[in-house]
Amino acid sequence: MIKKIATIVMALCFASTLAFAGASTSSIDIGASGVSDDYASRISLHGHGNDGAFASGGSGGIVENSGEAGMIAWGKAPTEVEAQVCAYGETEAAAFAKDFGHTSIAGAAVGTEVSVKGGGEAEFGKGFGIGYALNKTTAEISGEVKQGSYAQEIGYASGTFAQAQNESGATFSAKAKDCDATIGFGSGEAESGVRLSGSAFTAGGSIASVDASGHHQSAFAATGNIAVVDVRGADHEKTRVYGNGEVAVGANAVSNSGAASAGGGASFSYVGNSFGAGGAVVNATANAGHNSFSATATGSAFAVGK
User: Fold this and answer.
1) What distance in Å separates the CA atoms of residue 187 and residue 128, rounded to the nearest whole number?
2) Which of 7, 92, 159, 305 has the fewest CB atoms within 10 Å, i.e. is most exposed?
3) What is the pTM of this model?
4) Is residue 2 part of a domain?
5) DSSP state, residue 263
6) Residue 4 in domain
7) What strands lie across the sheet with 216-232, from one edge to the other?
8) Per-residue pLDDT reduced to its tens digit, 19-48
9) Is the dihedral of CA 152, 48, 45, 143 positive or negative?
10) Is 145 contained in some domain?
């Protein structure tokens, strides 16, 4: 009789479990992407190709968030998943080249930036049972800028000239991920979030000048750039910045008594994880008078990456 009663009780409990146990699952998967304003490009030419400049750049990014929560509980089994993502990018470029007679000037600049942000949470709870929650955010960005310019002047005396040119560019890239998961009784939540941004800027200029008599020539060129990456909220990341640039100048002066020439070049390059910057400049002058001649060239360059 006792065995029969126990069997009936266990059967009723099992039936109650089937009747009142609750199960639910919630999930979400969303993403966003941002691209800078139409790969900006500018070109400026003047003086039948003797002077010119160009600048171009672009950047883009993508962010995604996915989450899931599930629960098996006595009675109700509430679960909830939320996510937010956004992305933004912008690029601007300018180039200039002009011959002013005895002096030519050319220059260019371009900058780009991109930012992505995403996050979310998944939760289960307020039920007597077991549940799980998972949330993951991934993001990726990249960008590139480059520019160059050149200027040239030719003097009246044969062999007299001044010329300058420069080029530079910078890139950045980054990938980041944040993930959270939990499993347990009663209630629990998992949340993740990543913010990723990057920017790069480069600029340069070239100047060439001769005097009317052809006895004094000068050339100047300079360039520089910077690249930055910023990551927040990630438990795993991979970032890189890179940049380089070079300048070159030459000047030659001729008189009835002889000639003088000067020239030089400089360059830089850097590689870093989150920040890089560099620059180079060179100046040259040449003078050829009736009884005196002189030529000088100076330059410098620097680069840093970390």
Assistant:
1) 9
2) 7
3) 0.83
4) no
5) E
6) no
7) 79-99, 103-124, 188-210, 216-232, 275-288, 293-305
8) 335 665 555 565 656 555 434 455 655 544
9) negative
10) yes
